[in-house]
Structures
1.
Amino acid sequence: MEQRHILVAVTGGIAAYKAPELVRAFVKAGHAVRCVMTRAAAEFVSPMALQTVSGQPVRRELFDAAEEGGIDHIALADWADLVVVAPATAHTIARLAGGLADELVTTLALATRAPLLIAPAMNVNMWRHPATAANVATLTGRGVHWVGPDAGELACGWEGEGRMSDPARIAERAESLLGARDLTGVRLLVTAGGTREPVDAVRYLGNRSSGKMGYAVARQAARRGAEVVLVTGPSGLATPDGVRRVDVGTALEMRDAVLAEFAAADVVVKAAAVADFRPAAASELKIRKEDLADGAGLSLELVRNPDILAEICRDKGKRVVVGFAAESHDVIATARSKIARKGCDLLVANDVSNADSGFDVDHNTVSFVWPAGDVESLPPLSKDEVAGHLLDRVTKLLGDRE
Ligand code: CTP
C-alpha cells in the first residue's frame, strides 16, 4: 500500500486512551502519522505514548518556538493527506464549527486542504444537545466526514450514543477517504471542453460543452495517483491539483496537442466535444452586414475536421482509449455503432436532451457501452462520481492487459 500522510488530532476526552491504538493501525497500514493534541488531551493520554507509536514528536502548542522549529503548523497542515480528530469532544466540535484558530488543533483544521474525519466522543446528552447537533450540521455542510459515535455504555455511567468508534473502524473509514491510489504510475491523457472554430475576427462556431466531465476525470485520476495531462478547449474551470494543462482553441489544435501527448500515454479519455466541421476559410477581418448586399443572408462553407478519436484508435497499441458520445436521441443504438466505428475500448454515452444531465450541469446520467455491444447504465451521479466509475473500468482494462 502506498504511504499517505495522516495527521491525528487528539482532544480531551477519556477515549483519548485509545488514540495510540488508532495511530498504530495507521502505521501498520504503512502510513506516516504525526500527532497533535490539546492540553486537555494530555490529561488522558501521555504525549510519550503517541510519540512512541508514531515515531514522531507530538505537537501541543501553536506558538512554541521549539515545536515550530521542527515543522511549522502551516507546513504540518499542508503535509497531511487526511486529518483525523479522534476523539473529538463537544467543545472541539463547537470550536471547529466556529472556525476558531486560537490553539493548534483548530488552527490546523482551518489551514489544511485535506479532508477532515471526526470521531466524536462525549456524554449522550451532550451529543444530543441541539447546540452539538447544530455544530455537526454546520460541519457536515462544509464537507466534514464523521465516524460514530457508537452507542453503548459510556465512561460517565450513562448508556447511549457517545462512545468513540473502535480504532479499527476509524482506520477503515480513513482508508476509504484516502481513496485508492490504483493509478500510480499510469500516464493518462484527458481531453475536455468544446472546441471553437473561427468564423471571422470576432466570431466562432462552438458548442455547449463546459468541460466539467473531462475536468472531473482529470481530478479523480490525479487523486488516484495518475500522471495527468489535460488538453482542454476554452474553459473557466480551475485546473485540478497536480494536473498538467494544455490549452487549445480549435479541433486542429486539439488534434496536434493530443498527438504530441499520445505517445507517452497509457490511457486516453476523450471527453472533449470536438467540432466536426470548421469554416472552410475564416475571415481575418470582422464580417460586416454592410459588406453584404442589402438584406442578404450569409452562407458559410464548412469542411470536415479530422476525427481525433478514430485516428488515435487506429494506432492505439496497448493503450486504453475511452470515448464519449453526447446524444439527443437513440442514445444506446448510436453509441453502439459509434464504438464499432471508432474502435475505442469503452464509450461513455449520455443523453443530453435531459436537463439534469449532460452539458454544463454538475450531474450526469451515463451508460457504459462496450465493444461487444453490452451496456451498463449508471444512475444519476455527480460528474466526479461518474469519473470514479469510469476510472474503475479503466483500471480493470489496464489490469487485463498486463
Ligand atoms: N471526437 C473526436 N474528433 C472529432 C469528433 C469527435 O475525437 N472530430 C471524439 C469525441 O471527443 C468523443 C467521440 O469522438 O469522444 C464522439 O464524439 P461525437 O461528437 O459524439 O461523435 P462524432 O463521431 O462526431 O459523431 P456524430 O457527431 O456524427 O454523432
2.
Amino acid sequence: MYFYQKLEEDLYRLGVNDRRTARFENMFPMPDGVSYNSYLIKDEKNVLFDTVDASFIKSFCDNLNHVLEGVDLDYLVITHMEPDHSSAISYVMEKYPNCKIIGNAKTFSFIDNFFGDDFKDKYVEVKNGEKMSIGKRELEFIFAPMVHWPEVMFVLTSAGELFSADAFGTFGSIEGHYTSTLIDFDGKFLDEARRYYINIVGKQGRSVINVLNKLSSRDIKKIFPLHGPSHVDADKIKTFIEKYKIWASFEKEEDGVLLAYSSMYGNTEQAVDILACELSNLGVKNIHIYDVSEYDYSYIISDAHKYSNFVYTAINYNTDLYPRMDAFLRELAGTGFQNRKVSVITNMSWGGRGEKIAEEILASSKLEKIGETLQIKSSLDEENVEKIEELAKAIADSMK
Ligand code: FEO
C-alpha cells in the first residue's frame, strides 16, 4: 500500500517514518522516531531527491511507483550518501533502469564504495553552481561539504525550493503535520532540531557558515530537509536560518546555566542542588541539572550549547576523572563546544586529579572560568555552603 504527501501541485514527499530504530547512527536515542524524507518533482523530467533507509524499501517503492503512475523516472539526485538516505539506491536503479544518477565526484566515489560500480554508466556529474533545466524549473547544485558528509550538496530550484540534505532537519517522526507551520515550532521541534544539529553536524560550524553565506542573497521560499517537516513559512524559515547561524558560530542562544554532575553517593549532587537554588534566588532563569549517569549525553550537550554558563563536577574515580563525566566531556568537546563561561565543582575525597583531567579534555574549548573551583571533601560543610553562595553570585554576575 502507498502513502505520500502532496506538497505542491507537482512535488511529493515519499518518505517514511521510522519509529522502530532505537538510536540514530546507533548512538542518539530517538524517543519520537525520525522521518527519512525523499521528494519527487514531476516536471518535464521526473526527478527523485534521495531515497530512504533500506529497511523501508517496500513502503518507499510502493509510494514511488504509485506517484509515478507508470511513467519513467528520469533522474535520481543524491544530496547525501549516508545510508539513512541512500541505501535504497540499488532498488530504485533496478526498478528504473533508464534513470540517471545526479551527483558530484565525491558522491560517485561513495556510491562505488557502498554498491560497487554497477551504475557507473548512469552517473551525471555536476559541478558546484551548475544549473540544469528539468522543464518549468531549473535546478542549481550548491555544494555543502561536511554538512554533514563531504559529498553533500543542496539543490535550489528556480522556484525558490531548497532541498537541503540533513540541514534544517530534526529528530521526530512526522505526525501528519508535514510543514513546520502546523507544529509547535519553538518548543519540542526546536529542541529536537538543535539536538540533531549540535550532536551530528555541530563540529562543522565553519562549513555550515560557508553554505549559509552562499545562500544569503538567495530567495528561499521553501526548505525540504531529509528529516522532519518541510518549512514553507517565511518567518519560520528566517528564524530557523538565524538559529543555524547561532549554532554554527558556537554562540549562546540564551542566558542560562547548565549543570552537569556525577555523584556516587549524593554529596556532590547536593552541592549542585544548593548552587541551583542560590542561582534561582539571585534571579537567574533557565537552570537545568543533568546527572551524566542518567541522561543520554546528546540532550546534555544540546543544552550546553544552548546556554551561556556551564557547570560541571570533576569527582575522582580510582584516582582518575569519574568515567561517565570523562566520556561526557570528551563527547562535548568533540562537538566543538566553546565560548562559554564555565564553573567547576570537585570532590577531593581521593585527591584532585579529576579536575586536571577535565581541564585537559576541555583545553581547546576556549572557556572563561567563572569563580573559584568549589572543593568538597567527601561531604559538604558550612564553609562549602558559603563558597557555593559566592560561586552563585559570580555566575549570576557573569550574565549581567
Ligand atoms: Fe540523515 Fe547524515 O544522514
